[in-house]
Amino acid sequence: MAQRISRAKAKLKEADEPFALPPPGEGGERLRSVLHVLYLIFNEGYAASGGPDLARSDLSGEAIRLARDVHAALPQDPEATGLLALMLLTDARRPARTRPGGELVPLAEQDRARWDRRLITEGLTLLTGALRQGRPGEYQVQAAIAALHDQAASHAQTDWAQILALYDRLEQLTGNPMVTLNRAVATAMVHGPGAGLALLDGLGARLGDHHRLRAVRAHLLEQAGDTSGAIAEFQAAAARTTNLRERDYLATKAARLATGPP
Predict the structure, then answer these.
(1) Which three-class secondary structure state does DSSP give residue 110?
(2) How far apart are CA 177 and CA 171, in angstroms?
(3) Which of these, 173, 72, 78, lies nearest to 132 by C-alpha position?
């Protein structure tokens, strides 16, 4: 690695090219790539794909730091602003996502008094400024969804109809199957679990046997009253995740359903 860095430094010195932002109109694709990488780093930090901890705050914190730098360099770019807003509005909920022992706390059960209101206020301010430009992109839409969650006084008071409309728009923008998965949850909250489950049909062909697809199906089956189906899906989801905190949560859900109400 040290040799690679030395060779790269030598090549840059020979090229005599200064480090600077590209001229207007020439940096669009590069900026999209940078924002996408920062988005992935943040997501891995906020919800680690594997390991003993639910999150890696070192990664999410570094992603936020770099997103601030990008926003400072390009304050008029609505998607750079939207991405920073999304990170802040999401990270604001981090203090309530785990119990003292590190166990996962789902959104519906989180103590919203523990959410970081300073980050929420900053994120809302950034998002409002970005949306005023009239060029909504995927990060702005995701930030708007996060904002609706953050502004709701409780899970029951969440504006799920508006969230569903935003997921419809986000799916049009991205075609991402994970967006479809989240849209199924919002659909279930608005139209009932049967409608949400219908959206999951065929999604496995796009996502594969992903543990989050199994987990969402399990939650919707539980809401629909299909206890045995929910248990099977929670167990399958637990077997497919490599994050130990997620695995414990999903396995515990299955066990509690199997034993019935206390």
Answers:
(1) coil
(2) 8
(3) 78
Is 134 within a domain?
A: yes
- Chain position carrying tokens 């706390």: 105
Q: How far apart are CA 93 and CA 112, in angstroms?
A: 8
Is the CB of residue 71 less than 8 Å from the CB of residue 81? yes
**What is d(CA 65, CA 181) in angstroms, rounded to the nearest whole number?**
29
Report how many domains make up the chain.
1
The whole-angstrom separation of Cα 186 and Cα 201 is: 16
Helix (H) or strand (E) holding 242: strand 242-243
Task: Tell me what pLDDT residue 128 has.
Answer: 98
Q: For 3-54, how does the pLDDT look when each residue is reduced to its tens digit (9 = 90+)? A: 666 676 677 677 776 655 556 555 688 899 999 999 999 999 999 999 999 9
Residue 237 belongs to a domain: no
Contact between 148 and 162 under an 8 Å Cβ cutoff? The reply is: yes
> Which residues constitute the domain of residue 57?
33-155
In a domain, 197, yes or no: no
Residue 262 has pLDDT above 60, yes or no: no
CB neighbour list of residue 169: distance below 8 Å, 6 or more residues apart: 136, 141
Amino acid at 215: A
Q: At what angle do helices 193-200 and 211-224 cross, to 10 degrees?
A: 150
Dump pLDDT digits (tens) for 58-96.
999 999 999 999 999 999 999 999 999 999 999 999 999
